[in-house]
Write a structure and sequence with these properties.
It contains no helices and 7 strands. By secondary structure, the protein is mainly beta. The protein has one domain. The strands form 3 sheets. The protein has a 3-stranded antiparallel beta sheet, with no helix packed on it. Strand 3 and strand 4 form a beta hairpin. It is globular and about 35 Å long.
């Protein structure tokens, strides 16, 4: 699992690193919300399944 995060810009076909997530996760789900934020939920860390979620808000640093 990784705590790093990236966003994809379809206009430029490029990825950019953003603030890291609070904790590492893999096999998670992510969805773009109507306000432009991204909800990341579930997945696994090194110890097992996660029952947590995080929201990334563009332009807002942690």
């Amino acid at each position: 699992p990784f705590a790093t995060a990236e966003v994809y810009n379809p206009a430029t076909r490029t990825f950019a690193f953003i603030d890291s997530m609070i904790g590492p996760r893999r096999d998670h789900a992510a969805v773009l919300l109507p306000d432009g934020s991204v909800l990341v939920t579930g997945g696994r860390d090194g110890d097992g399944s996660l029952r947590t979620a995080e929201i990334w808000i563009p332009g807002k640093a942690r």
